[in-house]
Amino acid sequence: MPEQLGFFIRHSLNDLRVNGQRTIYALFCIMAGVGAIVSLQTLSTMINNTLTGSLQESNRGDIQVFPQSGFFVEEAVIDEGIEAGILEQPGEGAVVFSEQGIARLTAWFDENYPGSEITYRGSQSVEGFDTLSLAVPERNTSKLPVFAYIVDVEAYPLYGTVETVDDEPLNSVIQTPTDIVVSRSLADDLNAEVGDTVRISGSTTDFTLAGIVPDDAEAGFENIFANLLGYYYLDFGAVELFDNLTPGQGLLLYVRLDNPELVDEAAENLVEEYSFLDTRTTTELEEANSQFSNSVDDLVVVMGLVSLLIGGIGIVNTMLVIVSRRTTEVAVLKTLGLEPQQVTMLFLVEAIIMGVLGSLLGVLLGWGLAFATKGVAEGFLGQSLDFTISVDAAVRGFIVGVVMTAIFGFLPTLAAGQIRPANVLRPSEAVIPRAGRLRSFAAVIV
After folding, report:
1. Where are the alpha helices (DSSP H) in 250-390?
2. pLDDT tens column, 277-298
3. What is the domain partition of the chain in residue ranges?
4. Strand ranges inside 168-307, DSSP E
5. Which residue, of 109, 221, 337, 391, has the greatest Cβ tally within 10 A?
6. CB neighbours of 275 closer than 8 A, spacing ≥ 6?
């Protein structure tokens, strides 16, 4: 048996070398299918690692607290928060935390969960959208709309750091109320550089561009519009430079608990105390990210199978051509004593060898495609992805590629076993015989 298998392997390698053009075509079909699987699964792994990794940094705290909002929120709920002094409604439809409300919520956390740290994102809610426009007068450029992050640069964020493209922390570049930091995409849209004068509509003075941050510094998948439109940072001290902004108002509260294990309990108790508030915890973020990651995995499986199916058609066609071109050779081998099942095994070994070679090349192609398309995925998610060579994806892609090649190449190999030795005497009539109904049915079932 080992000697026979060795003969099959040597004979198959020689045939693959002789039939180089058809071999390359078959390898390309296999490589494309496996490459698609490996690249998609590698991207899926990178996305999953990012989404389920630094949850506290992504959430900017253990808990985000914000007023209930949306079409389905009853007006009475908002009125309750306003009457309690927690919320304010400075503009049409805009609901924000009042300065008194932020102080009361801070006191609530201090009383119930000592050691908690709280900061907030200042409100840009005004009549209309005045603060959503930026311009660089000396370059004659402007952008509308953009997102504003008005924060305490000494406290924000509670987890991780916000750094510029020059690796400087936010609180070191924003030194005065007139300093502004913008996202990379916004700077590109404005053709702006550090040191330029920036004008924000609604402000009483101009600002100086003190730094530029990567787009993913703030914009995650849950805040994709900030990534698409661009955003900027101002310190709380800048609020007084706007005629239409009220100091102390906040859009979002970020909470860091002394004991993060109490995050769900704290969020539940807070909403029970203040029914007009809503929260997002790291637990909820993890669940949402896991659901998205699972959806990506399902999409990867479907797209990978479709790619293999398309590649499988090419494999079947290639094997049929190989068998049709070698009917005389098969007839000679059977004349020399090879049984039909041995001829079938010979071609099956050849298909498996192609599957192994094509799958190995497909793994390398898949890693390359994953690296090449990483930027596209980062743009979609609004977050940077760490490139990872996924061994699991490579192993799965390799196994699936070899197995699928063997399956798609099985039916033509059955036909090869049915070639009659009489074809040696009538080479002009070299026609691939049928594999038989039973064998064909069995091949399809497999």
Report:
1. 263-273, 282-325, 327-335, 340-372, 374-381
2. 999 999 998 888 888 878 877 8
3. 2-55+288-445, 59-282
4. 179-183, 197-200, 207-213, 231-235, 250-256, 277-281
5. 109
6. 77, 80
* Separation between Cα atoms, residue 239 and residue 173, nearest integer Å: 18
Alpha helices for 117-182 (secondary structure H): 170-173
pLDDT band at 86 (very low <50, low <70, confident <90, very high): very high
CB 210 within 8 A of CB 175: yes
> What is the number of other CB atoms lying within 10 angstroms of the CB of residue 5?
11
Summary mean pLDDT of the chain:
82
Q: Give me the sign of the Cα torsion angle 209, 213, 218, 224.
A: positive
Q: Answer for the pair 58, 74: CB distance below 8 angstroms, yes or no.
A: no
- Quick count: other Cβ atoms within 10 Å of Cβ 175? 12
Query: Phi and psi (nearest 5°) for 419?
Result: -65, 135
Question: How far, rounded to the nearest angstrom, does the alpha carbon of residue 327 sit from its chain's CA centroid?
Answer: 49
**Coil, helix or strand at residue 318:** helix
Token pair in block for residue 400: 């699936």
Please give the helix or strand (H or E) that residue 96 lies within, else none: strand 96-97
CA distances from 33 to 5, 305, 309, 336, 344 (A): 28, 8, 8, 38, 25
DSSP 8-state class, residue 443: H
What is the total residue count of the chain? Answer: 446
Q: The pTM is what? A: 0.71
Chain segment 6-22, per-residue pLDDT in tens: 766 776 777 777 767 77
Beta-bridged to residue 120, according to DSSP, are 253
